Amino acid sequence: MELIEVITSKENLNSAYKKVVANKGAGGVDGMKVEELGVYIKENKDRIIQSIKNRTYMPKPVRRVYIPKENGKQRPLGIPTALDRVIQQAIAQPIIEIYEEIFSDFSYGFRPERSCHDAIKQALEYLNEGYEWVIDIDIEQFFDKVNHDKLIQILREQVNDSTTLNLIRKYLKAGVMEKGLEQATRTGVPQGGPLSVVLSNVYLDKLDKELEQRGLRFTRYADDTMVFTKSEMAANRVMKSITEWIERKLFLKVNATKTKVVRPTRNKYLGFTFLKNSGEWKVKPTTEKKKKLKQKLSEYLKRRKATARPLAVTIKRVNEIVRGWINYFRIGMMKGFMDDFGQWLRHKIRVIVMKQWKTPRPYIKI
User: I want to staple 218 with a disulfide (CB 3.0 to 4.6 A). Which of 147, 169, 227, 279 is the partner?
Assistant: First the structure.
């Protein structure tokens, strides 16, 4: 069976639709909400499937939005239309099944039953085996710079279906709508759709295979790659040769100022920093992540806003924020911080309680 038949099968499309609806999300350039999608697909399903199969389906441009990054800059996202999200998800599902069998064991980002914690644990394993020099590889604007022709060439090695490859290329070339103006997309896989993370893993799997072939210890989470060696000399040699390989073979630019050879204590990875405790390498949350938690709570607990809310609502939301943070950083050392943080948070809550207690409540005169 051709892959396009799997993609457009009733079971696969229904599964894709359910995932898109469950994830909700904002609408694309056509303004259609996810809630309106069911009726539209029911009325147009046969026409959509036929247009995909005969290669006349044309994806709409993604809607450009920006989200703030921790360094103060903004990350561009491309929001596909609700219908295009379903079709992208329908393409992604069978491609994931094909590639999961061949992806590296040391690739952890956006893969089933793998997480940031797995990447961190693998990094700690290397460090505790004596690989204490780290090459932190930074690929410049990776998601915006993926070469379309190279990506299709890589996909063709496993996806022997020209109609599917044609559809994927259309999504790569769909363009971006920003402030009412449509811009062509000559490179890149816009972040924001279900297909982008799958295609980025397919592209960087070539890097994984090269690192494996060289017998190097590494972890990769999306475009965040770290290589571990036992000496500074080896690390510098690997950094030079891998940088040249990435730029020559994958047509990507390695950021020379951010790619570096460092000791683990001077490196940050997925929100953690490394430290040695009683002769063993461990992790703890970065200072930036601790500050961000306090900033988020401080904003939510601003006195005027907080005193206007029922205390039970405030406590419930605070618990959700704190529980989510602890759940992510639970594999790290944080007892000292949590003791201090607990005192800080209790003081914040006490101030709100006292303020509410002093604030006269409106009453109804009978």
Answer: 227
249 and 325 belong to one structural domain: no
Q: 73's torsion region: left (phi>0), alpha (psi -120 to 50) or beta?
A: beta
Q: What does pTM read for this prediction?
A: 0.92
Residue type, 294: K
Amino acid making up residue 66: Y
Helices (H), 276-334: 287-300, 303-308, 311-329
Give the helix, strand, coil percentages of the chain, each rounded to 5: 55, 15, 30
Round to whole Å and give the CA distance between 96 and 167.
Answer: 16
Distance CA 316, CA 314 (A): 5
Instruction: Render pLDDT for 228-263 as a digit per residue (tens, 0 to 9).
Output: 999 999 999 999 999 999 999 999 999 999 999 999
Residues 239, 328 within the same domain: no
Given a contact cutoff of 8 angstroms between Cβ atoms, the answer to whether 59 and 87 are in contact is yes
